[in-house]
Amino acid sequence: MSSEVMTPASYIKHHLQSLTSLSDVTAGQAPKNIADFSYINIDSVFFAVLLGVIGSFLLWRGASKATAGVPGRFQAAVEILYEFVDDMCKSIIHNEQSRKMVAPLGLTLFVWIFLMNAMDMLPVDLLPLTWQGMTGNHHALLRVVPTADLNTTLALAIGVLLICIFYNIKIKGFGGWMHEMFSAPFGSKLAPANFAMNILEFFSKTVSHGMRLFGNMYAGELVFMLIAMLGGAWAVSGSVGLLDPIMFIIHIIAGAAWAIFHILVITLQAFIFMALTFVYIGQAHDHH
């Protein structure tokens, strides 16, 4: 990353800073707080949009190449995934008209989040070093996992919240939804308490929805950085000690083991986000 000796703390700090301005790609910019939403993280937006386009293309290609005959492996994989998502949507949302929109939404979320999570499988320094070479600045910042950025995951969760509000109004009418907000769960006599409880429920579901995905991917990113330092300490220091070859072997073994396990994590987190989306939209269809 630099001609200077980089400590483990400075290495991790560098990797956890997002690119917020193309005119300022140096690590000298003030570190951003995780919950600081006053900046646009350009790297997260870029990779999220790019992976969204790739995911949409893959789904479009699977649909456009579908045939009534014996499907190819790619078509079969897309059909299996679609049927799995559609069956889950049917089990949670019983309104057939709503499912025409919600099932494709769930499929899109799953594929998109899976692709964003999968960026964590790339070598930690591969794209950051490439970006540094392009900019000619060894301090250039770049984070490549959009879902390890709280801005991204909360934006997705807020999007789900807006869809839930839309279906609450569509299914119950605005007046019916407001009546439910003020009358459930304690009855109309405790209208203010009911409204406060329901607002709190919407807020807590949205925050937990985004934080769950962020927390798991952020932790996974940190683990990959720690594993990378096991094998890269000698490269940074410029000298090889007696323990460095052993640490490098441990780095390879630990990296491979964590990568295999992380395949499950990135898939599971995409599935959980999609499943909770179905649950929350399904709750918008329920009358109290």
Question: Short summary of the structure?
Answer:
The protein has 288 residues and is mainly α.
3D structure, described in words:
The longest helix has about 45 residues, at about 190-235. The protein has one domain (about 10-285). The chain is mainly α. The mean pLDDT is about 85. The protein contains eight helices and no strands. The chain has helices at about 10-15, 40-65, 75-90, 95-120, 125-135, 150-185, 190-235, 245-285.
Helix and strand arrangement:
Layout: H1 8-15, H2 42-64, H3 73-92, H4 96-118, H5 126-135, H6 150-183, H7 191-237, H8 244-285
Helix pairs in contact: 1-7, 2-4, 3-4, 4-8, 6-7, 6-8, 7-8
What is the subunit arrangement here? single chain
Runs with pLDDT <50, length 5+? none
Largest sheet: none
Q: State the order of secondary-structure elements, H for helix, E for strand.
A: HHHHHHHH
Q: Compute the number of strand runs.
A: 0
Q: What is the domain total for the residues?
A: 1
Structural class: mainly alpha
CA gyration radius, whole angstroms: 23 Å
Shape type:
globular
% residues in beta strands? under 5%
Total helical elements = 8
Chain-averaged pLDDT: 85
Helix content: over 70%
The end-to-end span amounts to: 57 Å
